[in-house]
Amino acid sequence: MNNIGIYVHIPFCVSKCRYCDFFSQNGTDEEMSRYTAAVNKSLIEWGSKLMRSADTLYIGGGTPGAIGAERLISIAAAARSAFNLRNAEITAELNPSSADNSFNFELLRRGGFNRLSIGMQSANDNELSRLGRTHTADDIRTAVRRARAAGFENISLDLMLCIPEQTNESLIRSIEYCAELGADHVSAYILKIEEGTPFYEERELLTLDEDAQTERYMLACERLEKLGYSQYEISNFARRGKESRHNLKYWNGDEYLGIGCAAHSYLNGKRFYTARSFEEFYDGVIHEDGSGGSVEEYIMLRLRLTEGLTQRDFRARFGTDIPDEYYQRAKRFEDNDLVVCNTEAIRLTRKGFLVSNSLIAEII
Ligand code: SF4
């Protein structure tokens, strides 16, 4: 049986960023300990139930760094004892403001973590402050430097596009900062204004028109490539061999188990999740979310990758060639430079990535 991926959600943040609708809140020391113990118990229970091995563990949030290195390594230890984790990619997300001197990078590294994803977002302090981030560009440099000194050789930085006060020049500065800090991987997402966030109140003022968004996205893709980061997914860029193994599981339609509040899973053909609720997580309430693994779902996920939907992988998964109907529908968008089709694969172009949701819906 294939190895699965494990995702653990840590729902604590010191303060709330203005654009954020992730499930996270302030937590006391006691609440963090209680939550960690529940995560570890859940990992052990799922381990004995599934009897599977995992080769990726991703601790995201929220701000995993906020619970401290000791609790994080206890989670990695529970995951190891439940799911083996041999030769695994083990990632923790960190916020630069929670990675100050009190954060023990060495302990995290010794506890088996080998990849960090640091929420940089921008290298410009005015933009960071407008986003409600509690760190500066200097804090990002300090976090990366401390992580490197502790032996982390795989560091990803998050970058946000189309944020308030950002200009093409300031975006280039942020991208160059990623390279200057030696990032191995960059995730560059366009700001999405979600209902219920403070930014939603200002959405008309903050939302860039389509042309401006296109320009920013293209600029980011080109600059990142020029600096040696190859695009492998709509929003993800990596130096050779530093692609996120965990996130690739999602886009390849592989199985994963999510532990904690608001965590989703796909296992044995079924999708299920825990609600955005501490009580339900502590009570072990699981919500079914239908079946997974259909041809349409696989195509939808694979078209997010620059490699696209390949005949080779489709055959390996479903035992047949990609059905012609998908080729026929995809070919209608070739003249607009949104899609490329050949005998080996169907893939979206960079221009196609910008309208991926509607384009993929048309194809499937
Ligand atoms: S640090 Fe991340 S999870 Fe926490 S509030 Fe900000 S964006 Fe949301």
Present as ligands are: iron/sulfur cluster
What do we call the CATH topology of the largest domain? TIM Barrel
Quaternary structure annotation: single chain
Describe the main β-sheet briefly.
9 strands, mixed
Span between N and C termini?
29 Å
Continuous helix count: 16
CATH superfamily of the largest domain: Aldolase class I
Give, in spatial order, the strands making up the sheet with the most strands. 7-8-6-5-4-3-2-1-9
Please give the share of residues in helix. 40-55%
CATH architecture verdict of the largest domain: Alpha-Beta Barrel
Mean pLDDT: 96
Query: How many beta-strand runs?
Result: 15
Radius of gyration: 20 Å
CATH class of the largest domain: Alpha Beta
Structural class: alpha/beta
Low-confidence stretches: none
Strand portion: 15-25%
Keywords for this entry:
Arc Repressor Mutant, subunit A, binds iron/sulfur cluster, TIM Barrel, alpha/beta, 16 helices, 15 strands, three-stranded antiparallel β-sheet, single chain, nine-stranded mixed β-sheet, 2 domains
Structure description:
With 364 residues, this protein is α/β, with parallel strands linked by helices. It has 2 domains: 4-250, Alpha-Beta Barrel (TIM Barrel); 294-364, Arc Repressor Mutant, subunit A, CATH 1.10.10.920. It is 41% helix and 22% strand. It has 16 helices and 15 strands. The chain has helices at 29-50, 69-83, 105-110, 125-131, 137-149, 168-180, 198-201, 203-206, 210-226, 245-251, 278-282, 295-302, 311-318, 324-331, 350-354, 356-363, and strands at 4-10, 54-61, 84-94, 115-121, 155-161, 185-190, 230-233, 236-238, 256-259, 264-267, 270-273, 287-291, 309-310, 339-341, 345-348. The strands form 3 sheets. It has a 9-stranded mixed sheet with strand order 7-8-6-5-4-3-2-1-9, with helices on both faces. Strands 10-11-12 form a 3-stranded antiparallel sheet, with no helix packed on it. Strand 10 (264-267) and strand 11 (270-273) form a beta hairpin. The site of iron/sulfur cluster has 11 residues, from loops.
